[in-house]
Amino acid sequence: DKPDSTPLELDVIAFQAIIYGRHQSRSLTSYEKAINEAAAHLALENPTLLSKKGDLFKQAKKKLLDDGFVYKRGKSRSKLTKEIPQSSLRRQTSLPKRQENAERASLERQEKIKCLEKKVEDILRSRQVTENELEACSYDIINERSTMEAKIVSYEDEKRQLTRQISKLKAQERKHKWYYRRKSENGSSNSSQTADDEFSSQLSLSFNSRK
Known about the structure:
- The chain is mainly alpha-helical.
- It folds into two domains: about 5-65, no CATH class; about 95-185.
- It is built from seven helices and no strands.
- The longest helix is centred in the C-terminal third of the chain and has 46 residues, at about 140-185.
- The two termini are about 30 Å apart.
- Pfam families: NCD2 (PF04905).
C-alpha cells in the first residue's frame, strides 16, 4: 500500500500549487488568495495537476464559482467567469454550506474510525481465544485443529482489511484538518511572500537536519 503523505509532503504540494504571489512581495487580493487556496486543495486531491498549471488554474477558478465566491467588482466583470461554462454557474454552492458539509463528513469519518477500531479489538480477542483453544487442543483431533487454524487465518484477513479502511479514513481526516488549518493561517497572513520565505526556511531546516 502507498504510505500516507507526511505534513511536510503536503506542504510541498501546496507550495508548488501556488498560482499567485510566489515571486511577489505585495499583498495578495482576496481573489488571488482564494485561487491559491483552491489550487492547493485541488493539488492535494490530485497531485498530477502540478504538472498542468493551466488546468490547475482553470479548475481553481471553477472551484471558486462552485464555492460561491463573489468577485468584488461583480460577477459580470469577474475573472472567474472567463472561459467558464454557464452550466457551472448554476451549480454554485455557498462556502459556509460546503464547510458545514465538510465538518459533517469529518464527524462521520471519526465515528466510523471508532466503530472499525472496536471491530478490530473484537477480532483480536476472538483470535486470541481461538489460539488458546488451538494450543490446548490435542494433535490427534486433526479436523478440529484445522477448523481452528482456518478461523485464525480468517480473523487475520478481516483485521487486515479493517486496518486498511482505518488507515485510509485517518489519512482523509488528517488531510481535512491540515487543509482547513492552513486555510485559516493563510487567511490571517498579510503577505504571501512571508509565507513563501517561512516555508522555504522550513524546507531548508528539514533538509539540513537529514544530512
